[in-house]
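Follow-up to my earlier ticket, as requested here are the two runs.
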Amino acid sequence: MEMLSVDGLCKKYPSFELKNVSFKLEAGYIMGFVGRNGAGKTTTLKSMMNLVHRNGGAVSMFGKDFYENEISCKQRIGFMLGGMTSYPKKKLAALADAEKRFYTEWDDNAFTRYMKEFGLDLNKRIEQLSDGMRVKFSLALALSHNASLFVLDEPTSGLDPVSRDEILDIFRGLISEGDRSILFSTHITSDLEKCADYITYIKDGEVIESGDMPTLLDSYKIIAGEKGLFEKYKSIMIGSKTNMFGFSALVRTRDVPNDASLTVSPSDIESIMIYHERKA
């Protein structure tokens, strides 16, 4: 079942433009949404969720047009946009009580379980929480109303490695039965390598890659060689680094030269991003 389809999504600001963003997510999978700061990740999520007015494009969720069925769709979405920053003087209990009124399938037992698992105290105020604990509270709210699709903006931001690993375990558990999916944006590429099935990479408002993780990694290689070879292979390089001894570059696997003087290495998500950003 197709849980999410984004087709040609556009949003124009005076100094930034989201250009025809498209990707799809099936049930039972996790998609990592990656890109450097300012690439358009949050703008995409806000436009998808109708938090900002889009200038074009279509979004469907659960096989229905999202904008025509926004209220019913949002009942089935666990949405998180950064850590909780509103109402700093309010206690967590009061904010949770307000949140639960919006959802017909709010699960008090699930919320209590996540609060305990995350080490959160309902009597604390937002202003008393660290950035990481605010993220955990926002995540507890998103996970507590039996959602089928989770749309999460930087859910592991500000968390220590142990907490991040615990949350990734939760993500894997959520999709284990094949009837839920997760789309989450992040700049922590090691998190993606632990749990993501699909990757969508956005750069300067445009999707550069969107597909399953193994295929994406297999489609790129890193070549390295002496300085004298740089000009010879410059035309196939997507992005490169040079130093006094030589160079390294990202190339498409299909373009890797048959040259024994080159070192050829596998790519990873971080290197694909870094070299794309260094594109001439």
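Run two:
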Amino acid sequence: MLADLSLMAASRADSTAIIVCPGGSYCWLSKKTEGTEVAAWLRQNGYAAYTLFYPTAGWAGFAWHTRALFGGNQYPDQLEAFRAKMREVRAMGYKKVGAIGFSAGGHLVLNAAEDLQMQAEKISPDFVAPMYPVVTMTHPSVHRRSRRGLLGEYRWRNQKMRDSLSMELHADRIHCPVFLVNCEDDPIVKEHNSELMDSAMTVHKVPHHFKQYKTGGHGFGTDPTKTSKEAITWKEDFLKWLRDGKF
């Protein structure tokens, strides 16, 4: 048994683990398409993968605004859940630990990359991949449902809070490579979100790869039946990016 554990530790020391954060506008989670299916695909390609089902507002919170009276999940609960998962995976001894997030999950992994507390604890991700992400909480292109899902019934009106969670305003705090993807025809999260993030990272010289597809929509994860032939090539691009060691 001790020998088995030693071999496992040795193999992890040379391997990469990826935390998968599904989307769902911080109100619910796309657990299969942007969660377990993505993790399974990463494992098939030689990467350890751990899906994070972080706290969300829930259907009642979204539909009936129950958090206004009874409280419920809201920022920073999601980030704290990510920190806990990062500590857990880091403790397993992997050489590199990164994160991939979809839609609101993309916002979460960017938030994690910018998080000063994670940097102080030395548990920041080694790379992040925000996929068609929610980015801004202030710009006119904001995804309003995600903003309310994240900040709750009242705090979404607080300008200071909105600024603090607009990822494009804090790109200078990102110290890891970023793989950023979105589609021009995204009907859910406006394409300007990723464009804002790309511009901010360019200004602050954050190493990143940005690919914007003309078609592909939103919410497709790794499923080729839910997007265009053009956009699904993100999978090959991402694997190449990982293999090339751009992090």
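The only thing I checked on run two: The longest helix spans residues 77-90. Let me know what else you need.
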